[in-house]
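Blinded run. Sample ID left blank on purpose so nobody reads anything into the name before looking at the predicted structure. Input follows.
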Amino acid sequence: PEFIDVWVGKRSFPILCDFTTPWEHHRWVTHESDVTLTTDERGEGQLLIEMADDPDDDKYPGVEFVPVVCDWTGYETLRIVFTSPESIRLNISVRDQREKNNYGERFNFERTFETGTHELTFTLAEIAAGPRTEPID
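Blinded prediction complete.
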């Protein structure tokens, strides 16, 4: 199923993940959390993320998306749409394939969101710049 999903993911690009196939959850690596593919009240695919209430001391609960296509040349923005049933503090981090990816060497966005649906748009130029002097690849 993972190989089929890679093929589907490459054909779907520039859509990174729309939760319409039964294998897309393999693109998400969990950290002190669980993911489940489900549908919303309109029947549209969604990924339900449940984070640990009491994570291990040295762990940060969340998920990591591993894209099928890593070359975004020719594109200008990254758009993320999500719905939260409660207020949530969200940290979005974009890393490249370098061996070292410390916090200060990648793009980071952190904000608290209230209950509801939210849409975020980032330019790839601002992501590439990140907080470092050398652009993210």
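Unblinding after everyone has recorded impressions. The two ends are 29 Å apart (CA to CA).
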